[in-house]
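Bumping my old thread because nobody answered last time. Still need a sequence for this structure:
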């Protein structure tokens, strides 16, 4: 393949597949953001359960993290997508619907990856809470600080500071897991690469192009999280110096 033909094939013109790959990359980022947000909610709840004084909550938290970290991600996606479709179809038949009723691939994919992400985020938040100095919490209670104020001014800022590196790792994990959503037909980056490769029969070219885009997203993500960690670190140093 000549260099000109390569540029035309990967270009943004009417005969190129560049726009398809870029839209797939955008879908991957949006899907990962949605999954990370869903995982943050589940992760916070499970972390609270694992730190609870109630044994039943701790057992439930351990069960959740064990299941979603131990079961293969692809199997979880299959269970949510195909199992969810079967459930919706059965319920629809109860109300007179005919035929198969599918579930939205984006919503199910984001929820499935979010549940997986939540298992890892739970451990990140739990470790961050444990890392907060107990003396600060005891001092806040000793002066009669309300619980909500203590959470807002002492616990949450420090938990976010300690958790940020781990959240960056979970983001990278979710970014890669999003490629598995291609089995549902959602046109994220891997699916877009498969479509382009199948249409042109240039499999090596488009899978390499997809890999390059994944690496580009990973590199940008590392820079963003590195910058965020630096900003949070400087903020805590300034607050410590003032105190």
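Sorry it took so long. Here it is:
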């Amino acid at each position: 393949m000549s260099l000109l033909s390569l540029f035309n094939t990967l270009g943004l013109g009417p005969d190129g597949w560049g726009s398809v790959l870029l839209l797939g990359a955008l879908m991957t980022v949006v899907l990962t953001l949605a999954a990370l947000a869903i995982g943050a909610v589940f992760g916070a709840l499970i972390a609270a359960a694992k730190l609870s004084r109630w044994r039943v909550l701790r057992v439930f938290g351990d069960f959740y993290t064990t299941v979603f970290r131990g079961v293969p991600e692809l199997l979880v996606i299959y269970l949510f997508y195909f199992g969810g479709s079967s459930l919706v179809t059965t319920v629809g038949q109860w109300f007179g619907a005919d035929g198969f009723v599918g579930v939205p691939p984006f919503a199910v994919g984001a929820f499935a990856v979010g549940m997986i992400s939540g298992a890892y985020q739970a451990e990140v938040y739990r470790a961050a809470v444990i890392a907060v100095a107990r003396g600060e919490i005891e001092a806040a209670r000793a002066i009669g600080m309300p619980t909500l104020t203590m959470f807002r001014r002492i616990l949450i800022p420090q938990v976010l500071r300690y958790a940020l590196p781990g959240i960056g790792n979970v983001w990278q994990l979710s970014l890669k897991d999003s490629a598995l959503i291609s089995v549902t037909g959602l046109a994220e980056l891997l699916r877009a690469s498969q479509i382009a490769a199948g249409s042109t029969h240039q499999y090596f070219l488009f899978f390499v192009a997809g890999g390059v885009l994944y690496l580009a997203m990973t590199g940008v993500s590392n820079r963003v999280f590195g910058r965020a960690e630096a900003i949070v670190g400087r903020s805590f140093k300034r607050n410590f110096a003032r105190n």
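The first helix runs from residue 3 to 10. Let me know if any region looks off to you.
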